[in-house]
Amino acid sequence: MQQRQRLANGLWVTLTHDPQASRAAALFHLAAGSHHEPEQWPGLAHLHEHVVFAGSQHYQGDQRLMGWAQAEGARLNATTLPTATAWFFDIPAAKLEDGFARMVDMLAQPLLSREAVAQEITVIDAEYRMLTTDAETLCEAALGAAFDSPAALARFHVGTLAHFGDDIDALQQALRDYQQRFFHTGNLSLQLLGPQPIEELAALAERYAGILPAADGAAVRKTEPLRINAAQTFALRNEGAPRLHLSFGLENIHRANASSLTLLRQLATDEAEHSLLAALREQGCCDNAQLLLPYSSDNGSIVTFEFMLTGTLRPAATQTETIFAHWLGTLSSLSPPQLQHYAGLATQEFARLTPVDKLRTTAFGFPPVDAANTALVSDWQQLLNQLVASNMTRLWVTPDITAENRHIQGFPLPLATIPDWSTEISAPPTLAFYPLGDRRSAPVLPAESVQLAHHQSDNENGVLILSPAQGEALPLRWANILQASLRAIAAGCAHAGGNLSFERHQGQWLLLLSGDNGLMVNTLDNLLTRLSALPATLRAQGERQAVQARQALQTDIAIRCLLNQLPRLLSGELPEADFEANKGAENESERDDDNGVETLPRLSWNAALYGGDAELQTALSHLLSHFPGEINARHFAVTAPQPARPEYRFPTQGEDAAVLLFCPLVESTASCLAAWQIMASLFEPLFFQRLRVEKNIGYVVTCRFMQTAGESGILFAVQSPSHTREQIMTEIRQFIEEMATNIAHIADDVLVEKTTALIENLQTTPQDKQQQARDRWLAQHTFSPALTPETVPRLTRLQLQHFHRQLCEQQARWWRLTNTPHSL
Which GO terms describe its biological process (predicted)? Predict the structure, then answer.
């Protein structure tokens, strides 16, 4: 249930009651961004987004939103875009009021102190240096060359120390002026979502958001209209994955009414047979595609089709564009029932998002589609009328060109204009749109069967989950080949109302299948047929995808690289050659000596069915007898892995030092697991305050409880442009040791509150049946006992002190991951 209303001060509020949600979320949207900052202060909007988190009139220190939210298990962030900014968080529903009060005060009455300003400009400067090697950022910056208007598309807006200067007082005054000019109800809007009734959400908005100043009559200036450059084709030299960007300038299509773009994204990213992506992959020119919305304003938007190419030479790009143009021409043939079918798929995907991601998607990207909207067809046609060649600009990204640097948006871009671009002439592929009708026929079941665990639930449709058994490592190469091989089958399953996925969750590869009985049986049969004889084209797709994944493990943000390496390390997936050199020397495939056909490594897999009936269990157990691996054959316990080295180093790009420390449980007991979660909730805000605020060691500073690859532990992660790995590690150790004092003085009521919060979190049940099954699976396949609301121990201060001592004393169990910066 959703309701939109206007408060007495003029603030527009969208309230969404979701009775099944376990968490609540809030998002403030400001209709001003980097294109609205004064030209003499590039980066001011970005800086303001940062500084408001540093404290407000009524909430300072550990009571401000940032510190308080971390202690309460909330997730929060902010985003500055060219013409908009947003601050958002989600939190256990019972804590929404306390968090919302802090957010409103933060935006209405920020302190904007000199100390916070000085600190955040160093953080933004480090961010800028990191972004100079980020391919996505550089591609987006290149739009400044492709469009003559608005001029702000080419202007610098990230911010650096050099641009902000040394006069902190002048900068502080500029921030105050920005606050005064834009932060009123004429520019702000609010979204609240939670399980609370609409009336309760409305009362919260009235109670707290009423302090926001009313509009002063001075509206945000209208942005310049979009005008494409006469030169429409550009090439950007970049060592990352080759790609092609086809961008269109759109009039009268904005984020507020962009559901037609959501429909377009659903069609462009469809992976089923006869889709655009299926045709591109069959021709071997493109592996993946996505739809981006890099710019949106009151005077138009830019939408970009991004294609990940299979080769660095021009034919891969021109052939991709040829097939795309043919597909674009077929979109006008979609009937209203077909449009409604794809709208329904988009609605299903939106429903799976977390509360805060629903708000973010609605505010900044691709809002939900109403299949019953009578204007759906007319809005769709209006969009198609603008997706024409004369309204398009190209950006070809490849390492194989020569180009001089051009400074656009403050980034040195090796960018060249290509005057003689022409697309390939080839026979158009066969394309089709769904629904295609039900073509299912029941497969013949094998005589053999496997033991398939069946867990009863209130889910009428079954959910089948398979995962490599603990101690079995699925190599990255084969994980990507599996993903590539199952894409079309998964998309066909989605079109029929089911779901098939093969993804990593909490560091474990999970194959998940759900739907009605007939659909699950047919989809599993198709899956097994595919795995029995993998086509060379699909293996090649997976190989390329694996190469890109390995490259990302070095070229991504340093701390993110280490986070992605951690589950591989714990699961034994990483070969010894990957440490230090990260050569990716994986030679794990099995080859049939008779015919040279490569087959999936035969691992031991666990499998279980959640929900469904006995007939479904029987059919699936027979089909799984032909799965390329042993199903539920392992009956011995596997112990948690132990680090074989005092430190694992991985190369990354950039000059920043990064350290990731993962401290697993010291014993496999419910008491230890509860203690680790409580200690993590105590540590998280204090760790951020110490290293990020007081010492300003790094711009990425986080501490949290984490479960990955079956292990539970406390994670510390820091990325710093100013400190070495050794210095960061020393700071983390000192912090952990000094927490003994905080634990010794923890108040009884605080300990009770932390335990109660842990129990409440365990009592929350996601509404999505697939997620419920997945959560049960993950809880059953860990090295620690699963906690339930009934089994959470009531820890005393003495017990918590005992476990903290164990944490400090058993450092040999710590997993230390560090990076070797490229410059070293």
Answer: proteolysis; pyrroloquinoline quinone biosynthetic process
Helix axes 748-763, 797-809, angle to 10 degrees: 80
**Tokens at residue 489, please?**
């089958």
Counting Cα atoms < 13 Å in the Cβ hemisphere of 773 gives: 28
CATH of the domain spanning 649-821: 3.30.830.10
Q: Which residues contact 763 (CB under 8 A, 6 or more apart)?
A: 789
Sorted by sequence, the CB contacts under 8 Å of residue 235 that are 6+ apart come out as 395, 396, 397, 398, 401, 403, 415, 416, 417, 418
- In sequence order, what are the residues at sequence separation of 6 or more whose Cβ sits closer than 8 angstroms to the Cβ of residue 637? none
Tens digit of each residue's pLDDT (9 = 90 or more) over 550-571: 888 888 889 999 999 999 999 9
CATH classification number, 227-417, choose in 3.10.50.30, 3.40.50.970, 3.30.360.10, 3.30.830.10: 3.30.830.10
- Residue pair 491/272 in contact (Cβ under 8 Å)? The answer is yes
Would the pLDDT of 593 be above 50?
no
In which order are the strands placed within the sheet that holds 243-250?
A: 286-297, 300-309, 243-250, 392-398, 233-237, 411-417, 405-408
Report the C-alpha gap between 95 and 802 in whole angstroms. Answer: 30
Whether domain 453-585+600-631 has CATH 3.40.710.10: the reply is: no
Closest CA to 164 of 234, 229, 236, 114: 114
Coil vs helix vs strand at 512: strand
User: Per DSSP, what are the bridge partners of residue 309?
Assistant: 286
Find all residues with CB under 8 Å of 246, minimum gap 6, and list them.
304, 305, 307, 321, 324, 392, 393, 394
Render pLDDT for 698-728 as a digit per residue (tens, 0 to 9): 889 999 999 999 999 999 999 999 999 999 9
Q: Domain 2-136+148-209's class?
A: alpha beta
Query: What does the alpha-carbon distance between residue 772 and residue 779 come to, in Å, rounded to a whole number?
Result: 11
Alpha carbons 114 and 171: distance in angstroms, whole number: 9
Is it true that 2-136+148-209 and 649-821 share their CATH fold? yes
Beta bridge partners of 12: 6, 189
- For the entire predicted model, the pTM comes to 0.92
Query: Which residues make Cβ contacts (< 8 Å) with residue 464, sequence separation at least 6?
Result: 512, 513, 514, 520, 524, 607, 608, 609, 610, 620
Tell me the residue length of the chain: 824
d(CA 64, CA 576): 45
d(CA 637, CA 17): 45
Calpha distance 584→547 (Å, rounded): 9
According to the model, what pLDDT value does residue 423 have?
Answer: 78
Q: What is the pLDDT of residue 577?
A: 52
Q: Could you tell me which residues come within 8 angstroms of residue 316 by beta carbon, excluding any fewer than 6 positions away?
A: 242, 285, 286, 309, 310
Look at residue 386 and give its three-state secondary structure. Answer: coil
Judge whether residue 220 has pLDDT over 70: no
